[in-house]
Design goal:
- The protein has 472 residues and is an alpha/beta fold.
- The chain has three domains: 3-136, Rossmann fold (3-Layer(aba) Sandwich), CATH 3.40.50; 169-372, Rossmann fold (3-Layer(aba) Sandwich), CATH 3.40.50.12780; 375-452, ANL, C-terminal domain (GMP Synthetase, Chain A, domain 3), CATH 3.30.300.
- The chain has helices at 3-10, 27-44, 61-72, 86-95, 140-144, 168-182, 196-210, 222-231, 241-248, 271-281, 385-393, 430-438; strands at residues 16-20, 23-26, 52-56, 76-79, 100-103, 116-119, 125-130, 148-152, 164-167, 189-192, 213-216, 236-239, 261-264, 286-291, 295-299, 313-314, 319-323, 326-330, 337-338, 352-360, 366-371, 376-378, 381-383, 398-408, 412-421, 449-452.
- Strands 2-1-11-10-12-13-14-15-16 form a nine-stranded mixed β-sheet, with helices on both faces.
- A hairpin with a 2-residue loop joins strand 17 and strand 18 (326-330).
- Helix 9 packs across helix 10.
- The chain is globular.
- The N and C termini lie far apart (55 Å).
Length: 472
């Protein structure tokens, strides 16, 4: 089975697939170009198996076309996100034992001459580079047997990313289950702002499978985003709490009457952001829990206004258990394997242990509390860094913060904070921050140390990296 071939057969070739600025691409055009790219790749692929092809391409129509081409060729797609450093891309290439790299931008870290130079239909040039991979650190036969479509690396907030392998069958099961809740169909126009290298495998593939139109917006300015939403009567938007906080601050008159579904994911949704978005546009903001290994299994569809901070309840296809507050999920579309170290049986009786700590209220609604590995244990009491960071970030002199656990001989751990000041010339005093935290937090949650920094380490998807500080 090849999921992308199925998508190509499903829809009217004249239907609109993607809009980007003034460019409009029909389903027929999209897959005609993708098939041509696939044929070109096959001509040069002499591996005799499912090849692994890394894709280095900026967000845009070209990313969609090239991804479709790689998958239609029968290869396994490995995204190489544009924000990664050269060393990080090279590490992924080595870890996945890439056979080829398809690059639609410069590739200085690779160095080898391209075996092929061509262009996408809009004139975007791309090159195919042959790799000389090391012997894979995983069994080739086991990998091939999965019918792999994607290898995706997690954000790495708490440690080394292992590489998640997803087959064509798994992707179909995942997007089918997710769409039982999202209900995307050919009438929808989905406004897209997120990095494709991190969300393409489920989100955009789901939109294409459902026959919707994906509207691309490259600007990060809220005025531009809302102008695009108005111009194309966008019906769905899927983004992070940051995006929705930004949009909620708009002071214009556009009320977005066509919007039927706004979904926040990637981080815990602050209630204040949800309320602000509802006040500004008169539409509830639905929080969902998206996990690379699982997909979208939980979304707040029933009580977005009454309980805006809730993750909601599991979608019909999924079962959820809380074991010592850790979120466990079972259902369709869960990962097929971890790549390195190789683990073709990553589930326990069909259950995936997410590492997310969740609580359930009396009505069965779930609430995200934090990450299991990021929890700070202070004399046997749990401190969730995200909770403390939310308080710190509410101080007017704080631009962003990160809270870590530092080892302590008596307490086990104590919380410490790193702060990016809103005004570097006038950083907040530690006593001010302590007083601010003590007003709303228990004493054991208040950081003992506040360190001013210029920047904080982020994952490729913009999340805070959780690195344990073991300095006594």
């Amino acid at each position: 089975m090849n999921l992308i071939e199925e998508i190509a057969r499903l829809h009217d070739p004249a239907a609109l697939a993607v809009v980007s600025g003034e460019r409009r691409v029909s389903y027929g055009e999209l897959f005609d170009h993708a098939r041509a790219i696939a044929a070109t790749i096959r001509t040069h692929d002499d591996t005799g198996r499912i090849a692994r092809i890394g894709l280095q391409c900026p967000n845009g129509v070209s990313y969609i076309v090239l991804s479709m081409g790689v998958l239609l060729s029968g290869a396994c797609l490995v995204p190489l996100a544009e924000e990664l450093t050269d060393a990080e891309r090279a590490e992924i290439a080595a870890t996945t034992a890439l056979d080829f790299i398809l690059a639609a931008d410069v590739l200085p870290w690779h160095g080898d001459e391209a075996i092929l130079t061509a262009s996408v239909s809009d004139g975007t040039p791309w090159k195919l580079h042959r790799c000389d991979p090391p012997a894979p650190a995983f069994p080739e036969d086991g990998f091939q047997a999965l019918n792999p479509a994607f290898i995706r690396f997690s954000s790495g907030t708490t440690g080394t990313s292992k590489g998640v392998v997803l087959s064509h069958e798994t992707l179909l099961a995942r997007i089918t289950a997710a769409n039982e809740g999202l209900q995307i169909d050919p009438r929808d126009r989905v406004l897209w702002m997120l990095p494709m290298a991190h969300h393409f495998a489920v989100s955009i593939v789901l939109y294409l499978h459902a026959g919707a139109t994906t509207v691309l917006e490259h600007s990060s300015m809220r005025e531009d985003i809302l102008a695009t939403a108005e111009r194309h009567d966008a019906t769905v938007i899927y983004g992070s709490p940051f995006h929705f906080a930004m949009l909620s601050g708009d002071s214009g008159s556009f009320l977005w009457p066509s919007l039927r579904l706004a979904v926040a994911t990637a981080a815990a949704l602050p209630e204040a952001t949800a309320r602000a978005f509802d006040r500004r546009f008169g539409k509830p903001l639905h929080q969902g829990l998206g996990i690379i290994e699982v997909g979208l299994s939980v979304i707040n569809l029933e009580a977005a206004r009454e309980k805006p901070a809730s993750l909601g309840k599991p979608l019909p296809a999924y079962e959820v258990e809380l074991r010592d507050d850790e979120f466990h999920v079972r259902g369709p579309g869960l990962l097929d394997a971890y790549l390195v170290p190789w683990n073709p049986s990553p589930l326990d009786g069909g259950w995936f242990a997410s590492g997310d700590l969740v609580r359930r209220d009396e009505d069965g609604h779930l609430y995200l509390m934090g990450r299991k590995k990021s929890v700070i244990n202070v004399a046997g009491m749990k401190v969730f860094p995200e909770e403390v960071e939310q308080v710190l970030n509410g101080h007017p002199a704080v631009f962003r913060s990160r809270v870590l656990g530092r080892e302590h001989p008596q307490m086990g751990q104590v919380p410490v904070a790193e702060i990016i000041p809103a005004d570097p010339a006038a950083p907040p005093k530690p006593v001010e921050l302590q007083r601010h935290c003590k007003a709303v937090l228990s004493a054991y949650k208040v950081p003992l140390v506040f360190k001013m920094v210029e920047e904080l380490p982020l994952t490729a998807s913009g999340k805070i990296k959780r690195i344990l500080d073991e300095t006594p």
